[in-house]
Amino acid sequence: MRRYIDGLSDGAARELVHHWRFWARPEQMAPPGDWRIWLIMAGRGFGKTRAGAEWVRCIGESMPDARIALVAANMAEARSVMVEGPSGLLAIAPDAMRPVWEPSLRRLRWPGGAQATLFSAAEPESLRGPEHSHAWCDEIAKWDNASGRAMAAWDNLQLGLRVGALPQVTATTTPRAVPLVRHLLADDGIVISRGSSHANRANLPPAFLAAVERHYGGTALGRQELDGDLLDDIEGALWSRSLIEACRVRWSAEGFVRVVIGVDPPAGSQGDACGIIVCALQADGRAAVLADCSVERASPEGWARAVSAASDAWGADRIIAEANQGGEMVGAVLRASNIALPVRLVHASRGKAVRAEPIAALYEAGRVIHCGTFARLEDEMCGLMAGGDYQGPGRSPDRADALVWALTELMLGRRGTPRIRSLED
Questions:
Q1: pLDDT tens digits along 68-81
Q2: H/E element holding 321?
Q3: Cα(412)–Cα(259) distance, rounded to whole angstroms?
């Protein structure tokens, strides 16, 4: 192919840069036939945004009467990703056909007459009146569904798609177990394109692929974020994927009242992980999960150093460590690592799943948030069963148990079930 490109004239080479059919992979091309909804559900870095933008570009350049809705989670993302981003509509357009961008009107106008208007899914009423022939909805799994906003935005958009003989909408997203995505997947009439991050390896920085493999490789969540699979919930589990997604927020270090670290020590250095989970109580009364500092196959001195490092990094007020595995040894190891650690030992009188039930209820009540994505922790949470069984990865939910200890201390205090004593007792 390089020999072919090298043989082109300068003009032909410039035209080839914008020839999407030449560069696109088959799964990035619009499907044939009279479809109404095309869902591109794929892993991070697959090229979903480029595929959606190129589909809109084709319509804008070939259909003078097209009226296109560009809908994102919020107006800032609609502008920065769909219009002005590196794979946005301005960047991919050839000079002669580049649309005019009118930020004050939230509008793009193509030379032939087609127009596209930006909308925020956080404002579903803005989609109630306008009529469109086409729509591109980006990262629909990120749309905020508080008070049913995401579903309302989608429904209002669909009711306004009544211009032209065949109104169409393309939705691009990384799969997440949210109501809107599940609603679309239940529709037998939609066309779905799937793919993984690795399908676009040639266009992705090696550092990106290495980073996501390091964080998500080998986890169930990795199948979602990299492979583009929608994770199914285990029937009877205390946590569902959709419940965890509903509590996920952007990270913020403001408004913390207390910081606590839950620790679930391993029985030995060759067995399970040492669960080390950092949580905080916010001024608004909610608990925030901040970090998973767990370590695997570490000696007692190794995991104790990890606890000490997490305490120093987050300024923890208290370390809550389970003492069932090792008894006084747990306290002695932590003291040896850092004598100033504010440690409390807890003795579990009930099973992990039973202890987790009141914490799962806090999630249901909206009293816990996740400041980021914690793949291995969340995999374990979704494997804890209401009946006391565990069906998640590994032999034991060490991270989930550490989470339970930390949140019990923050949210339930001495009303909780653990019997707690200080190292000084």
A1: 999 999 999 999 99
A2: strand 318-322
A3: 14
Of 145 and 83, the one with more pLDDT: 83
d(CA 243, CA 234) in angstroms, rounded, equals 13
* Distance of alpha carbon 65 from alpha carbon 115, whole angstroms: 8
Contacts of 118 (CB under 8 A, 6+ apart): 70, 71, 72, 75, 78, 79, 82, 83, 106, 107
- Separation in Å, CA 250 to CA 74, 142, 304, 344, 372: 14, 12, 29, 30, 6
End-to-end CA distance of the chain: 74
Q: Cα separation of 273 and 268, whole Å?
A: 9
- String of DSSP letters for 217-252: TTSHHHHHHTT-PPPPPPTTBSS-HHHHHHTEE---
Query: 358 Cβ partners below 8 Å, 6+ apart?
Result: 408, 412, 416, 417
Q: Is 119 exposed, middle or buried (0-12, 13-18, 19+ CB in 10 A)?
A: buried
| Beta-carbon contacts of residue 132 (< 8 Å; ≥ 6 apart) | 67, 68, 69, 157, 160, 161, 163, 167
Q: pLDDT tens digits, residue range 162-215? A: 999 999 999 999 988 788 998 998 888 899 999 988 888 888 888 888 888 887
In this structure, what are the phi and psi dihedrals at residue 109, rounded to the nearest 5 degrees? -125, 125
pLDDT at 415 over 50: no
Global confidence as pTM: 0.66
Say if residues 333 and 298 touch (Cβ distance below 8 Å). Answer: no
